[in-house]
Amino acid sequence: MDVRSRLGSLRDGGMLAFIDSVVAEGGSSDNGRRRAWFGALMSVAWMSYMIGPVLQSWSDGERLRVVLAASTLFGYAALVVSSFVLFGRRSRTASVLDRVVDPRIWLFLAGMVVCTVALVALLGPVALPTANFVALAAIFNMSGRESGYVTFAVVLATLLAPLAIPSLSDFPFYLAFVPVVVWVIRQLGMRGEQLTELARRQRAELDIVEERNRVARDVHDILGHSLTVITVKTELAQRLIDVDLGRAKTELADIERLAREALAGVRDTVGGLREVSLRGELANAKTALAAADIAADLPATEDAPDNELFGWVLREAITNVIRHSAARHCTVTVTPSSIEVVDDGRGLGASGSSGSGLAGLRARVIAAGGTLKLSAPAEGGVRVRVTVPE
Most CB atoms within 10 A, among 31, 302, 320, 364? Predict the structure, then answer.
């Protein structure tokens, strides 16, 4: 990642995203681990300012004080590193909306407070800023509310300590507000992460709803058409069984084929593999309309454009003609940018214009950027016309 992209991540995602781009290029789990170590090492580096006062005490010949201060400082650094690595890594690998504060962090904070008090007692006011590390460990490893309480307590203690203990009066009071600034920046970053996570979850939920709607539309269109044709052919076979046994057997074979195709279609739909072609639907429409004794005027299959949407339109329109219209004639007209299905049946009053099939069809057309229009010709019946941009 180059410098420009890293600066872009700083602008778009804040300091945490910038740290991610610097310390890691891998997955989220590895990212969280490296970020935790980065924070721990940075804290220890900032703590290194205490080496000067320790060396000064050594120069002054206070060997016991130096040993105690150095040991306390080392223990403090170990607590800081452990808190970032143990608790920071765990919070980073969890979802920003599902993080749970580990109660053991309070033991680490208590140990840091003890180390701060010990360093102040051994080295004087120069060690008082180490109280800020208590707040920093809470800010980066606890929730906003709990870390806010800890930060407030640390700021209040570092401001009151010089008033209560005159020997600490040399402490620069403005250093007490460093944790407040860090806490505010941290909360802004956390709010951004939370909004991003919420948006991601909402997108996932919308994708699930859209997939459910797709399956519902496809299953309705497949089963609605197939079962309608099966019903018509079954009635035809029952009438022919005593008149023309050979043709009745042919119709029964077609019924079996349609049932198998419908089952395969449902399976493909659930798997997201269902494909509908206009040419295939023209052939199916010819067979279905003939079985229903409806005269059909259809374009030649070889002249039909390769348009899946028109295939779904034709399937739903022919299903409604057979099921609802009681028509005697049906005409289909196809151009590269439109398809029109017209029948001479009962009209819109028979089937209405708000059924689930037409609603699903309208959703398909709108998703493709087209328009669906239902109308009643002057001579009666229904006209279904769908146009798409060329």
Answer: 320
Phi then psi for residue 333, to 5 deg, are: -125, 130
In this structure, the number of other CB atoms found within 10 A of the CB of residue 76 comes to 25
The distance of Cα 373 from the centroid of its chain, to the nearest Å, equals: 35
Q: Which residues contact 176 (CB under 8 A, 6 or more apart)?
A: 132, 154, 155, 158, 159
Q: Over the range 304-323, which residues count as b (16 or more CB within 10 Å of their CB) and which as e?
A: beebebbbbbbbbbbbbbbb
Q: Answer for the pair 151, 115: CB distance below 8 angstroms, yes or no.
A: no
By CB atoms closer than 10 A (0-12, 13-18, 19+), residue 119 is buried
The rounded Cα 73 to chain-centroid distance in angstroms is 45
Going by C-alpha positions, the residue among 274, 272, 332 that lies closest to residue 298 is: 332
Each residue's pLDDT tens digit in the chain (390 positions)? Answer: 443 444 344 334 444 444 344 333 344 445 556 655 666 666 666 666 677 777 777 777 777 877 887 888 888 888 888 887 777 654 444 444 445 667 888 888 899 899 888 888 888 788 888 888 888 888 888 877 888 899 999 889 888 888 888 777 777 777 888 888 888 888 888 788 778 777 877 787 776 677 677 667 767 766 777 777 788 888 888 888 888 888 888 888 888 887 877 777 766 666 555 567 888 889 888 888 887 888 999 998 887 888 888 988 998 888 888 888 888 999 999 998 999 999 998 887 644 555 567 777 888 888 888 999 999 888 888 999 999 987
Q: For the chain, which residues make up each domain, given as ranges?
A: 3-171, 210-387
User: Is the separation of the CB atoms in 222 and 274 below 8 Å?
Assistant: yes
Amino acid sitting at position 276: V
Q: Write out the two tokens for 184.
A: 């505010």
Give 210-387's CATH code, choosing from 3.40.190.10, 3.30.565.10, 1.10.3720.10, 3.90.1150.10. 3.30.565.10
The SS3 of residue 123 is helix
Residue with tokens 């119709």: 251
Look up residue 61 and give its DSSP letter.
T
φ, ψ (nearest 5 deg) of residue 229 = -65, -40
Phi, psi of 62 (to 5 degrees): -90, 75
- Measured at the CA of 185, the angle between CA 181 and CA 187, to 5 degrees, comes to 115
